[in-house]
Structures are given as C-alpha cells and as structure tokens.
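Job type: complex structure
Entries:
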Amino acid sequence: MGIFSARLNQALCGPAWLWRPCSVQGFGLEGPRRPFHPEHSRFSPPRRTGSPSAAARPGPAPPAGPAAPRGAEVERRGRSRSRPRMAAAASPARELTQNPLQKTWEPYDNGLPAGHSAQRGVCMTNCPTLIVMVGLPARGKTYISKKLTRYLNWIGVPTKEFNVGQYRRDLVKKYKSFEFFLPDNEEGLKIRKQCALAALNDVRQYLSEENGHVAVFDATNTTRERRETIYKFGEENGYKTFFVESVCVDPEVIAANIVQVKLGSPDYVDCSNDEATEDFMKRIECYKNSYETLDENLDKDLSYIKIMDVGRSYLVNRVMDHIQSRIVYYLMNIHVTPRSIYLCRHGESELNLKGRIGGDPGLSVRGKEFAKSLAQFINEQNIKDLKVWTSQMKRTIQTAEALGVPYEQWKVLNEIDAGVCEEMTYEEIQENYPLEFALRDQDKYRYRYPKGESYEDLVQRLEPVIMELERQENVLVICHQAVMRCLLAYFLDKPAGCKVESIFLNVEAVNTHRDKPENVGVDRSREEALRTVPNHL
Amino acid sequence: MGIFSARLNQALCGPAWLWRPCSVQGFGLEGPRRPFHPEHSRFSPPRRTGSPSAAARPGPAPPAGPAAPRGAEVERRGRSRSRPRMAAAASPARELTQNPLQKTWEPYDNGLPAGHSAQRGVCMTNCPTLIVMVGLPARGKTYISKKLTRYLNWIGVPTKEFNVGQYRRDLVKKYKSFEFFLPDNEEGLKIRKQCALAALNDVRQYLSEENGHVAVFDATNTTRERRETIYKFGEENGYKTFFVESVCVDPEVIAANIVQVKLGSPDYVDCSNDEATEDFMKRIECYKNSYETLDENLDKDLSYIKIMDVGRSYLVNRVMDHIQSRIVYYLMNIHVTPRSIYLCRHGESELNLKGRIGGDPGLSVRGKEFAKSLAQFINEQNIKDLKVWTSQMKRTIQTAEALGVPYEQWKVLNEIDAGVCEEMTYEEIQENYPLEFALRDQDKYRYRYPKGESYEDLVQRLEPVIMELERQENVLVICHQAVMRCLLAYFLDKPAEQLPYLKCPLHTVLKLTPVAYGCKVESIFLNVEAVNTHRDKPENVGVDRSREEALRTVPNHL
C-alpha cells in the first residue's frame, strides 16, 4: 500500500492546468478553467487562505457526475489535447506534485496549484480561432463545418458551429420561397443581418465566456464587405480569423448536394422535390451577383483556405498557427467519395477468456472461429479495394491472417497501455490498486494507468489513423476495445452523420464490457467496485 | 530463462516484411527486400529447401555490421516508417512468430517467412514517388529539396536528391559564365540535356533497383515540355510524379538567396561577390523568357504544390496519396525566418546518479544546479519570444520550473519506454536479459525493449514535435537522451545507424541555427558536473559474449 499513501498525499489539490494560457486584451479569459474534482472523492480541497491567485480560482466544484450540466462536459474535454499541456513560471517555493488521476506533474506553491500566476501577457498559439465559411449555397459549407467541428472536438479542441441558416429558421418559423433571399428584399436583408448578429453574439459568448477554442461561423459570407465586418469582430475580441471557402462549378456536384441535404431541409418540408430544387437554384442565383471569391491579391493579408471542386485543388494563404495548420491538413485530407469503414475487434483472445486486460495473447478457439467468419463476411461483402489494418498485437494480426488478403500493421492501433495493470483481472486491480480503480471509474476518459495510458492519450495516438481513414476509401480496421471506442466516438459524433450497421458474426465470445458502477468513491467496498465486472473463467 | 528460449525458437528466420508491396508493371521490384540478419548472431538461417518463394528470397546476408556496404544501410532504413508495416495473406499452415529484435509478429509458413507470396498485384499508397522541383534559379529549390529529403529519410522513407546542377559541374569542370545557360547556346543545351538524362537514369536506378522510395529531381524544369518529358519518364517506370514549384518575385528574397548559397558555389570560386551576383542575375534571365509556371488550368491534371513567396501562400493540386499528403503538410510548415533551436536534457536525475535508465525520478542536487545555470544561460542569451517545451516527466518539468517562464508539456517528448528494463542498471539488464541486451547492441535503432519502444518507434512518436519545431521560431526543448538523439539526427541529417550513438551529455545545451542548407551546432556545457550516461557500442555484440564484454562500455555510476 506504500504507493497509495504517497498518491493520497499528492492528491490534496485538484490540478491547476485547465486554463487557457492566453490573455489577449478584451478576451476576458484570465481566470483558470475549473479544476478537476473527483466525484465522491475523499480528498479534501486545498486550504485557500491568503493567496489571491487561489481566491481567483473557483472553489471545489460540485461532483461532475452523470447529472452534471453540459457545461461541465465541455470542460472535461476542455483542454486542447492537440496542443501539449501548458505550465507556468517559477517561484522559490514551487514544488511538483503528481495529479493522481492523470499522473501528470504540476507545480504547487505552498501547497496550492501554481499554474495560474505566471500566465499574464503570454499568448500562445492556441488563442481562440474563428473559422468563417465562405461560398454560395450548396457548396458543402455545412458539411465541412460539421465535419471540422467533430474532428476538432475529438482531438480535444472545444469547438462549436454556428449555422446562420438555423438562426433564420428559428426566427422566421415558416420559409416561403427564394424571394426572401433577393438582394432587394429589405425585410429579408434585415432579418438575415439580425440572424448573423445573433450568431456572432453567440460566438463571442462561446469563445470569450464558455471557454470555447474554435467557433465555426457557417454562413455564405460571399461579399468582401461582410467578411471584413466579421474579421473586425474577431480582431476586437482577440480571435484569430481563418476563412474556409468552398468553390464548386460542377453542376453535378451541386445537384448532388441539393438532393442529399437541401431537400430534407425544414425549409422544404411541404414541397415536392422538383419544387424544392427549383426554389433552391433560384436561391443560389440571389447570391451570385454579389459573390466575391477570396482573391489572391485583394485578400492577400487574410488567412484562408480555398477548396476548389470538392478537393481537386486548394489555395492556402497565410497559415498563422498550429491550429490553422492542423485545420488545413485535415481539410486537405477529407473527401466525399462514397465508401464504408468497417471496425471490429480481434477475435476473442486467451486473456479475454480469463477476464484479463491487455497483454499480447493469441486467439482462443472461438476467436479463431471468428476470424474465419470475418473472412467469409468480408468476402461476401465484395468490397472494392478494401484495405485491412491491424495493430501490432498478435491477436489482431492472427485475425487478419485468416482473411487471406494483404494488411497493414499500425503500432498506433495497439490497445490502451494499462501500465502496471496489464494482464490483470479487474478483481486483481481492485485488490492491488483499489484507489486507482476508483479514480478510473470517476473519470475513465482522463484516467491514466500508472506507467500506462488514458483514453485521452489514446485519442492523441490515434489521430494519424483518423487522418488516414479520412484519406482512404473502404477500410477494415481490426483493433481493440478501447481503440475501437475512440475511433467510433469520432465517427458517431451526432451532427456529422454516419450510418452504423452492427453485424454480429454469430460466433459466441465473452463479454468484456464493464459498465460504470454506481459507486465510484474511493471508499467503496470491493463488492461495489466489482459489481459490473463481466463474467469470466 | 523461459522467455528467452521461446525467443530463440522464434528467431530462426529473419523477418519478411522488408519488401515493397507494390508491383506496378516495369517496376521490377517483385522480390522482397533483404531480410534483417542480426550480426554475429547465433541464430541459424532457415532451411530453404523446396519452396520456390523461399528460393527467390536472397540467402542469408553477410553480417550487416559497421563494415557492411552502403546498400545495406539503405535497407536498414528501407521500410517506410511513415506508413505502417505491411503483411501478407493467409495459407493454412501460416503461423505467427515474434521477431526477437523488434518484437513484431510475422507470419511464417512451414517455418519460413511468408510475407512475400501474397503481395502480387497489390499496389499500396507507397509506390515510388518522383518529386520534381520547378522554378527559376535562386528560388530555394535546392533548399527545399535537401530539407524534404532529410525529413523523409528521418521518418523512414528512403529518399535521395538528384541535383542536375551538380551533374553539370561534374561534367564541365570549369564554369565560365552565364553564357552557358543562354537559350541559343547549343553546346550548353546539349550538355544540360545530357546531365538531366544522366540524373534521370540515376533516379531510375535508385527507385527501381536500390529500393529508394522517393527521388527528388532538383533542376529548374521551367518549361511545360520538360515537365512532360519527366512525367512520362515517371509513368513508364511506375512512379507517381509530384511537382514542387517555388515562385518568388520579391527581389530581396532572391538577393538573400544568392548571397547565402550561390556565392559559395564552386561556380564562383574565382570571382568577387559582385561579379558572381551579376553573373547569376544574368543566369536567371536566361530562363525567364521560356518560364512557364504551373497553371491552374493547363496543369490541372498534374499533382503539385506551388509555393508562393517563401510560404505566404500555397496552391495544392490533386494530392494523390499518403506520402504526397505528408510532403504537402511538411512544405506548408517550414519557413526560413532566422531562429535557433536549443536542445538539452533535464538536469541530472536521482536515477542517473545510480546508473539506472528510465523511471520518473526527480533531479539530483547537481541537476537542480544545472536548472539554475540553464535559467541564467537562457536569460543571458536574451532570446526573442522563446518557447520552452518539456516532456511530461518530472525531471524535465523540474528543470523548466527553474527558468521562471511559461512552458509546454508534451507527452510525446517522454523518454524512450524501456519496458521491462525500466529503472534497471545496465548491469541488471545484462544479468536478467542478456539476450535482449546483445540484440540491442546489434541494432540499437530498430531494437524494441520487451513491452517498450525502439528508437524507430521514438522517431515516429516525435514526428509531430519536428513538424511543430519547423513551424516555430526560437524554441528550447528540455528532453531526454534518446529523444534528444532523435531530434538531433533530424537537424544534422544523421543516418539511423548513428542516431542511437549521438553524444548528448547531461548539462550541455546544443544551439542549432539554420545556415544555408544545413544547421550550425554550438555545444555549450553549463559548467555543472554530471554523470556520464553515454554507453558506446561494445566491440562484441554477439549473444554469447561474456558479462564483462557486454558491460565494457557502461559508464561509471554509484
């Protein structure tokens, strides 16, 4: 138990790094993010007497359990995992203390988290970013916005999209016709301006008050004047503005977009498809006269990417920082060719049977049977140019071997590293590391195994896989439970739309899913801790 | 010893994955790459009777030790580490066997590596790539070529640049004047064509016979006709061609480029700087009339990136595969603003003192002293907008804390994971895992610790750090021995065999400043004593060496 008492001592305070290290004027985000507070934890909050920097920090938060408000969830994903963690400057009394949940080292000052004080005036690359879509209707702006938002959230950058069309629909309940969008429709203009302003207000709220990092402003923004207004808005609020224009002249692509997303729009709920298409084409015309594309010379001082013909080519101008560079790379790798991604785990392993986690075991008899069934299934699906990826662990490679097709081994697809808990049963973890086990149940996403990884680490590790999955067409990924959860979370994020079919291949296997138990406190009984452990040998 | 006898059994054959999974017609690379063969190893080669696929594979290679030919070195870095490892299809008798060096699982067929047979006809994204530079003289083409070549080699994609100017200098020993480049100088034209052809021949040799993955063809290639010739050459040989054009109209940038790299050129060894500049400006003029830039419409079917004004903007067209996408991302992140990168390790740790590797210890007394000296040094350097990066390990964070400035913690900067050997002394590793210890000495770059990492793994892990270092300006990276070796190898263009032996002593800052095509290195010892943690490659790396031989190069410790 020696190791635990040491950890208990270190755990007296919550971590202090959940702030944004940026203090641009007018940005209003000097304060730290709310510190993590393990729910039902026995750890008492630090004594907060005397230090003004401690007083500025919010007190111990209410338990952030399943019933916590949405805001808390956002905060949980709040730190930009795409950027490394930030820390602060020295004072003589500073000492490093290990965060018991994430196993990170953090400076403490007289027993108090010291991250905050030294941050003044330092503006790192992760200032809030305002992404402004540009383009005629039906150019995939909303598709790009949603997809980009999903990606950024997944890699840990809190991002929200603001669709001005939705504001309009909320304000004007009933859409009549394209005439609303005519350049000389004064009432229409007024309402549209009102909506844009309301959306920008919400952008400000999100970036400056709700700790958002990136806002995606999804509207046509087809005139230089409008873009200038938005750019100024960004400047005044201390945001970096990045424009994303989608230019497309291929009538087939536009028609496909209209069929795919516009006909289902609430605007056209009472029309036939032909009526809707006709009206929408006229709506596009309303913008065409005043449309000013981003220009190599006129807009040479702006940061932007211009996407031509759904990714045939790109013009990229003045990429200013890390996040813009990541955004550009992502946008250059996505495509819209129809395809399917197949995710599965390896066949049942010898350690699965025994209820042990991790390790590098081979397949059980049933696991091998699954591999054969998978081969048959893949054969029957008759998938064009299917790529098969595995991890570098024996059980996924054994599964892929049965397919009789080439495959690629990715080390980054390896299962989460459970550190000192590798090859243990849950019962053994509870017995040997009861505190660790409880901490994991309290925040499974951020919990890092001693000498191992967290789900949060895993997502970072898997980013190149997601990027390459975006680039590829049909792919079968044979991976592991935690890895598959991370990949699935990316593809299933609600707004970005992915149809999921779940196919059980009719080979029995042990259940390896352990639900979150009701009691996640560090003082729970063994029985309470093990209540949700699935059956095993 | 149970674990070792198991490994010995698994080690009967070399791995079979060192082939390129691509069989484009005319490509001539159906055969596998030469299998890895541990030097002085006791493992006997597989019996190669009866199987035609085994016969096609090269027999047991001679020990690929320090005396091995250059070809072998290329092969060691041969597999594209930027792409995951490839493996092959099933046959009923296939079984997985763990490679003892890299701890990877590989299919074996009746005791023989089985990677090969199933690869026919499958063309993955890592076909050979021909990168063709485009642009007037003094637009940084050679800078980009060299830098890109260095990056790709570092991430494990065997890449070579072919500079046509160098072929010309080799052929025509003495450069006279710009008149050689006049469009109506027939002899000049003939020689230049000859050089271009010779270079393309070498490109073919490299990509089709020497297992190269990427060739960078560095010449002006300013006419559409010339580019078409090269594109056809690529098509005929099964290469994907990607053009990289650098367009620059800023006279200051051009002048700076001439001063930085052209005045030192062998062409101008006997001239004054003014004469050289004047001649070079005229040389540029020779190309201007016929220069056709890559055009959005005319060249819309080509894959290319056009870099405008040293990275102010980029036009990117038809990126075809993974490697092109990586290249584009890299080119969009590099810049030429003068800056310095400071690399150092954490201060001496408690475990350093004891001669133990890894772990997550705090600083020793001297380590803390170093942290203070580092603070003073950084202060005195008075560096503009210095970023400070650490790993997530206590010892680097403690070192950074002393600086009194903000810093960023990167998990990917953590020290190499020594797996089961974490926190051991070399003596303990030799005692508990003598075979592992010998394998590591045989190929330290590719050796993966049981349940840990290899240097090769580390390079992959560090790629985002390199990318961000390229994007940034002044940065101090406080890291670890193995990590620092990997970073240093990138900046100094060191091959994989040398990388794990680069000297990165404690309490010493390396200041790297880009100059011309390379990097100036200043090594600054901050005058705080520390233990030596560098263990040289011992002479005997055989698995049957004695304990004494294995430990001969272990540095002193408590």
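Summary: Chain B has two domains: 129-331, 341-550. DSSP finds 18 helices and 16 strands in chain B.
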